[in-house]
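Convert to structure. Protein one:
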Amino acid sequence: MNKNKITQEVEAIFKKVFEDDKLEINMTMTANDVDNWDSLSHMLLIVEVENTFNIKFKLRDLNKMKNVGDMIDLLVLKTE
């Protein structure tokens, strides 16, 4: 799956999890940039991403993700 398609899918997941149709993601976005991004919504986000892309993140994968760009780059690798 290419990076643009993955980015579109991830943005749709963010809109769903945060219940905000106007939310636009960018590669440097972090939890500090999104209202209501707390530990619970973070777990919902991870589960939704795993289910959508039919993957499982390892703990070290989660620890490496510092922003949305890191998540997308990891998804590109995991879906090749």
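Protein two, convert as well:
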Amino acid sequence: PVRDAAIPALGRFNEPRVAEALLRHHAAAPGRIEDILLSRPESAALLIARVDSLAPEKLKRVAAFKNANLDAMVRKKWGAISQGTPEEKLATVRRLNNDVRAASGDIASGRKLYFAHCGSCHKLNGTGGTLGMDLTGANRGDRYYLLTHIVDPSAFIRKEYMTIEIRTRDGRSVSGLVAGEDAASVTLIGANYQQTRIVRADIAKMDESPVSVMPEGILEKLSPAQLRDLFAFLQAK
């Protein structure tokens, strides 16, 4: 509990010793610590130098700094990072659609996959997270519709799920959904449900992001059989 409280608190300090301390505990809470270290160019450079891999959505956060040194570090270690063209995403949707319709899936196995990959953010039939939209009333009968929104989550984002990017006066970058705001501060909530409160006097810039908080590539982690199981559950009445 002490560590869980200390991680977001330490993110307020732009000091090398703070970044070093967080890196020493990286294995204990990788997602949360990476989010903190990627909020500043200086600590992002340390993270890139020390870790062997970073998820594509994390690397896109690095690109958002538009920092030539960071971009060179990423290219040297992992190559070029791109969002993928609309044509490439359409091809992915068609390929996955062919995989899903090739055979029947198992609903029970699909339920386990749903809660492993989707349920922490999306509620379905009264169970699941609240960070993303409730899928119960969504157009789940249309497989192509589902695939399109999962493959390209940034293509259409409902207003209440728009990601907000805040840049503070001391160079910190924080993004997430608005969890609360008043005259004195804005509180953002990230994909791991970690809340960050930022005093309005410290905000240099606040914009809506065209990028969804939902990461791309979720379905690429699944085999064709697992994909069929997941969609059997998603589309079950």
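The CA atoms of residues 23 and 50 lie 8 Å apart. The longest strand covers residues 173-181.
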